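In practice, a research group might receive sequence data for several interacting partners and want a quick structural hypothesis before committing to experiments. The following worked case mirrors that situation: the sequences arrive first, and a predicted assembly follows.
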Amino acid sequence: MDDLIPLLPKLWEASYETLYIVGLSLIFGGLGGLILGLGLYTTRSNSLFSNRPVFGVLNVLVNVFRPIPFIIFLAAAQPLARFVTGTGIGNTAIIFTLSLAAAFGISRIVEQNLLTVQPGVIEAARSVGASRSRIMLTLLIPEALGPLILGYTFIVVALVDMSAVAGYVGGGGLGTFAIQYGYRQFHPVVTWAAVLVIIVIVQLVQFLGNYLARKALRR
Amino acid sequence: MPLISLRDVTKSYPPSQRGGAVVHAVEGLNLDIEAGDIYGIIGYSGAGKSTLVRLINALENATSGSILVDGDEVTRMKEGELRRLRLGIGMIFQQFNLFNSKTVAGNVAYPLEVAKTPRADIALRVAELLDFVGLADKARNYPEQLSGGQKQRVGIARALATSPRILLADEATSALDPETTHEVLELLKRVNTEFGVTIVVITHEMDVIQTLATKVAVMDGGRIVEQGDVFDVFSKPKERRHSASCRPSCRVFPPRPNSSRCGSGIRGAS
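A structural hypothesis for the assembly, expressed as tokens:
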């Protein structure tokens, strides 16, 4: 415990950094994933904008990038991060790379959840003369909102997990804190403190997600 | 001039497997539906009824042939024109297909929002329609809180929102019990008599045709094998095959001694 107390300010700072990295990655990656997922859903056969070549390209793109272990992706995409954000290290670089990696993962979750919407509902909207983009924005997303919220909750937890390797490219957060001040300095209590904070964050996120999904699903 | 007129219409689907045969859901079909008719289309499942009805509002595109709705050629319409066409053609479905994310009022309002109706008019129109279908007290409820019959009545209100001239009913009562079926059919009758809406009813149930329709076409294998006034078609069936589908009506039509319709139906099936 004595090891931990002087480090508490650093722990809070690390917690804040984790929330910052995860929050921004959720916004950028979440938006990118939503667009990509809508692309996958709407271009498949018998969908709103059925387009085999486009679907094929998107599908392969997601399949190529999604399974790369994040720590390797982080290293491999560093030149791209540097090109886009101006820096290959630190929190900014990791937010970029994390958003990119998350977008591919989120796209599958979005696609799966949109597929739960009954095709008949889409047909009903077409039958009243709604345009395809109107259907996508005013019907498809609201109809799948409950499962989508749960999907995004799942992703936030995954982002907390992935953000823990930020230290490899000079980023901060709880992962860096736990390794740097706990593991490397033989202070397991410090490591456990970081674990505890992560558990609390994940619990809060999950409770919030469940609550919002319940509201959307009305059950 | 008929309100809906189909000439030599074919709808084919590519084979589902490599080397399979092309499926003709509708083949060389001719059909005229006059304004004010309640036109029943009956047939076995797979006869092409659902495809046929979707050709009228172009949810499916015809492979060949001509489809005139109110004098306009549907098969040549672009996306924007099709959207305008569909505002004038309501549709109801077997599984109701209500929007679960919207309230009853929200469901009925949706077509009006699509039609860019002013907000104040939407509220009035929604109230009027829910009153017509007898669900004024359910406006704020969500679809899952309704019974099947109530859901279909919401479906009808939604389909009528933009005051269409045509209503397409695709097996609208097939998921309902007999009593609820009767209620919905009565409501559809009122839609026809009070608003003068031309209704095209797709069904496999004889009772529906008998209660509701004024004219009927019998479909089999993507073609219309017989059409005319309801009584004529079912009292003197020309083909043995569809006389089998008349069989359930024997419970409804009193059999007459020298009528061949039920006898041949039963023999035909055995």
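Before designing any experiment, note the following. The interface with chain B takes residues 118, 120-121, 123-131, 134, 138-139, 142-143, 145, 216, 218 of chain A (CB under 8 Å). Chain A has ten helices and no strands.
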